[in-house]
Amino acid sequence: MIQIEETYDVVIVGAGHAGCEAALACARRGFSTIIFTVSVDSIALMPCNPNIGGSSKGHLVREVDALGGEMGKCIDRTFIQSKMLNRSKGPAVHSLRAQADKSEYSRRMRRVLEDQENLVIRQQEVSEILTEDTENGMKKVTGVKTVSGAIYHAGAVVLCTGVYLAARCIYGDTSQYTGPNGLMAANHLSESLRENGIELVRFKTGTPARIDRRSIDFSKMVEQKGDQRIVPFSFSTDPDSVQIEQISCWLTYTNEETHRVIRENIDRSPLYGGVIKSTGPRYCPSIEDKVMKFPDKNRHQVFIEPEGRYTSEMYIDGMSSSMPEDVQFAMYRSVPGLENADIVRNAYAIEYDCLAPKQLRSTLEFKKIAGLFSGGQFNGSSGYEEAAAQGIMAGINAGNYLKGQEGLVLMRSEAYIGVLIDDLVTKENFEPYRMMTSRAEYRLLLRQDNADRRIRKYGYEAGLISEEQMEKLREKERFIEREIERVKNVNIAPTEEINRLLLSYDSTEITTGITLIELIRRPELSYDALASADPERPDVPEDVREQVNIEIKYEGYIERQKRQVEQFAKRESKKIPETINYDDVKSLRIEARQKLKDFRPESIGQASRIGGVSPADVNVLLVYLKQNHM
Amino acid sequence: MRDTIAAIASGITASGIGIVRISGPGAFRVQIMELPANTIHYGFIFDENEKIDEVLALIMKAPHTYTAEDTVEIDCHGGPFVMQKILSCALRAGARLAEPGEFTRRAFMNGRIDLSEAEAVMDVIGAGSDDALKSSLMQLGGSVRREISDLREKIISEVAYIEAALDDPEHMDLSGYPWQLADRLTGVKNRLTRLRDSFNEGKMIREGIYTVILGKPNAGKSSLLNAMTGEDRAIVTEIAGTTRDSLEENIRLGGLSLRLADTAGIRQTGDLIEKIGVERARSLAEKADLILAVFDSSAAFDDNDEDIFSFIRGRKAIVLLNKSDLPACITEEDVRARCDAPCVVISAKKNEGISTLAEIIRKMFFGGNLRINEQTMITNVRHREAVEDTLHSIDLVFSSIEAGMPEDFFTVDLMDAYASLGKITGEEIGDDLVDAIFSKFCMGK
User: Fold this and answer.
1) Over residues A188-207, mean pLDDT
2) Which of A219, B148, B410, B432 has the fewest beta carbons under 10 Å from its own?
3) Are A302 and A315 in contact (CB under 8 A)?
């Protein structure tokens, strides 16, 4: 039998949000790259919610963009509504969320892949990873094999299989062995991974029904409009180019009738009836979970969101479910405005094989298989943004591996991406991991507005950010510095005019001279608000104004947070030698020893975040390292 | 691999019962391994063929022992010779002589006790007075840790609430929350303030009550010091102004430790050296926990005496009317007219009235604001600094609330407060902590 046999630098398995970013990160650096997908029509598919961003996820998109990724640019050209969330709170928790035109998003990302040099797209199911043993008892990846028997040699392989591995979709008694949206599942790869010593777990997630817009009575709902002035996701998108006509979303609520329907049929839920044994996300619960776990809530929010500009399908945000079809009809139709709803697609739960990510290094490379990387939902995360973030990191690191360079690891103190990956590889997750602002300790430094200032340099070093883009950032930095310096030295005299301005902002009048910087620090005032009191002010671009304002207003908090980071960095920089034998550290508690052997943390900081390892254990470890001059 | 250590655990002065403790993996020989854990065995200790002592052996198996290692304790007769002999048998059998504090260090390193408990044990070993012992024992039982843990719990639950609301703004509303937070933080702040203040009292117990003797020249200050210490420590002469510097002595009085300082007499003076002494006396008295103001009762009060009265007003002081062996010129009524400090009539020279003085000091500290029997006290500088840092962070949260900052800013300082408190209980990790452990427990190697 004659078989196809080809050689590439990198193989990417899967073309979802992680796979696309990983493939682009490799191909853009000049590596010959092949990306496999079970269906070319499902490249960058959004099988669940029709939006990108949201609380803390918006930060991730900004960071992916800062590194040179594609997600931000793609949504900037395909969104239909955009909102900056949490505007009433501090700048650290402002977060951008855009409603996507799903099929446009997918189409555009596919176009970007197709236009990319060095990148080959292949519709084929990968069934095996190929490895060889190395001298040190480890393994090394050498390529992949497809179900057709074709062999693709490669120095590095990135697994981005999403929710497709041994996937099963379930609602009520109906259960189909498919991926999302009825797409083909990938049924062979799990076996090959297990044979290579990789431990898999089974996770579950779900999606709500899609309802025909023509059957919805919007007069019973509250309209949700987008922002007046739209802020783009990408640092390279011209803000003027995204001021489009937006499409509204709608808000309605469940009620006692909805909850009654669910309670009376709860034994028919596969989740409660025991058909689904895998673990679902607490942070994105199904409506039956919400009703059963919060019995005193008499209503839950339901957002009705368009799936795109050219479709009448509407996404029912807040009511994901795996109830039987008839219960779904009764349940959705109990909601005001949905009384006559026509369901286009049923809600369903999906369960799938994914990785216990403690098997990964912080570079997303497998600890036991050199050259094999993994990113996205396969790593036990949930969400498009989390996937894209891991995808670009896995892609960059696959490239670094091929070049023999050190891997790129972002610290928890410099990026949400750092928090995301560190959480995945050091904490045991028993449910799909979702990014949240509360997971980031140094939130005040990790704002969505300064993602470029934080991590663009890494994208530049990896060759994904051009010299021109980098120079633009340097220019911005210089502008910010100059402007803050200038503002420090502007004195404001207590004139009638200035006091009128202050009073208009409910701010106390001044009776003696004061520096402009002092006035900006007042909570009710800002850099922009005081423009008329500052005649010497140069023409400052919007993004610079924002940075100047934040740095001045929150200086004290930012400084204190930076001190916290110093403490943190000390622990992170205290590395644990890979050769350590935890059995020699006699005074560790048994549980801690087990966990440390299991996770093999790279630093003291990482060790301290492993569940089951107490501060006392870490102190013992520190003492051991010190005693043994390690 | 950790070795096996042995030491006399009961102190080596002769006493009725002595204890030799052996801890580590080699504490049990094969036969002992098979004995049930936590049993007591009666028998004899032999050195070769020589019977040394009749003993009880306590067999305690890891991890339920003081060090969390296999441990044998041998209860023997308390003579130094017998104990040494048993110890040397253990050493010959392969154990190593334990360093000071090593059992405790092991208990800490094995995660059985936290740093605050370990430090308290070290305090017990070095305790200067019976009451220091009591306070140390309370920390050992974890009273500091319980208080700190409870405060940390309160702080972290506020952080959790804010974080949850940020993650789920659709279900959790933060309107009005800042003022509720301010309310609850006031309670936390009060408890922290009490803890911080207890440090001063804690310090008194550990290092002794810093007591300064004050009085004009020749009122009998040095004689008083001598009477209290029972030796001719200070130079006593008839010439006013003999004591130019101050002398310090640690003494025990009625079960309390006193750090007693004699000072140069307070009076207007032109002599330069003496002037320096006088200034020093005042500055010492400023820092004193207790002032003993000595007056010569055989002469009427002069300006110098009035100066002293105005100085001690509002401070913790006891007035001593000295020289009761001479005809009295002033009475307790005269003193009461000037200040409300307790007053004792003494004769330092004849050693009269000293026991009354001791009783008053005891009453002041036990009956007054020193409630050492219930109150959690911190007795350690490291702890106090951590509490100060925590208070500072809490104050910053208050300013954020007052300035109307968005709620997500509160967590920056709340987390600092949480971390500072964690340093006390060892629930925070840091190199400084390990350094502290190394210096405190003379780690060796």
Assistant:
1) 94
2) A219
3) no
Q: Which residues pair with A315 in a beta bridge?
A: A210, A305
| Contact between residue B258 and residue B251 where contact means Cβ atoms under 8 Å apart | yes
Mutant choice from A97, A586, A628 vs B, greatest count of B C-beta within 10 A: A586
Contact assignment for B167 to A570 by CB distance below 8 Å: no
Output the pTM of the full model. 0.75
Can you tell me whether residue A545 is helix, strand or coil? helix
Cβ distance of A437 and B419 shorter than 8 Å: no
Return the domain boundaries, chain B: 5-114, 127-204+380-426, 208-366
Two tokens at A245? 């006509």
pLDDT band, residue A616 (cuts 50/70/90)? confident
Residue contact A623–B407, C-beta within 8 A = no
Q: Is the pLDDT of residue B134 over 60?
A: no
- Contact criterion met (CB below 8 Å) for A18 and A38: no
Which of these CATH numbers, 3.40.50.1240, 1.20.120.430, 3.30.950.10, 2.60.40.10, describes B127-204+380-426?
A: 1.20.120.430
| Nearest to A38, CA basis, from A131, A147, A114 | A147
**% of chain A surpassing 90 pLDDT:** 81
CA separation for the pair B11, A469 (Å, rounded):
74
Put simply, the answer to whether B429 touches A570 (Cβ < 8 Å) is: no
pLDDT above 50 (res B269) = yes
- The alpha carbon of residue B44 is apart from the nearest alpha carbon of chain A, in Å, by 33
Angle at A470 (CA atoms; ends A465, A474), nearest 5 degrees: 160
Contact A622 B163 (CB under 8 A): no
**What backbone phi and psi angles, to 5 degrees, belong to B3?**
-95, 180
Lowest mean pLDDT among A93-107, A464-478, B418-432: B418-432
In the CATH scheme, what is the homologous superfamily, with its name and number, of domain B5-114? Answer: Probable tRNA modification gtpase trme; domain 1 (3.30.1360.120)
Residues near B150 by Cβ (< 8 Å), separated by ≥ 6?
none
Query: What letter does residue B217 receive in the DSSP assignment?
Result: T
For A623, which of B109, B164, B167 is closest by C-beta distance? B109
Closest-CA residue to B360 (of B291, B299, B419): B291
CATH class of domain segment(s) B208-366:
alpha beta
Crossing angle of the two packed helices A57-66 and A384-403, in degrees rounded to 10: 30
* Chain B residues touching A574 at Cβ < 8 A: 431
Q: Are strands B209-215 and B256-262 parallel, antiparallel or unpaired?
A: parallel
Using CB atoms, which residue from A437, A615, A623 is nearest to B428? A615
pLDDT of the residue at A561:
93
pLDDT tens digits along A313-335: 999 999 999 999 999 999 999 99
Specify the length of chain A in residues: 630
Classify the C-alpha dihedral B154-B159-B160-B166 as positive or negative.
positive
Distance (Å, whole) CA A43 – CA A40: 6
Q: Which residue of B has its CA nearest to A608?
A: B429
Whether omega for the bond prior to residue B63 falls within 30 degrees of 0, making it cis, is yes
Q: Which of A506, A618, A622 to mutate to test the interface with B (most CBs of B within 10 A)?
A: A622
Q: Which range has the top average pLDDT, A133-137, A534-538, B276-280?
A: A534-538
d(CA B75, CA B57): 6
In Å, how far are A328, B221, B323 from B299, measured between CA atoms?
A: 103, 15, 10
Q: Is the pLDDT of residue B440 over 50?
A: no
A-chain residues near B412 (CB < 8 A): 444, 557, 560-561, 564
Interface TM-score (ipTM) > 0.85: no
Tens digits of residue pLDDT in A456-504: 999 999 999 999 999 999 999 999 999 999 999 999 999 999 999 999 9
For residue B445, list chain A residues with Cβ-Cβ distance below 8 A.
627
* pLDDT score recorded for residue B233: 47
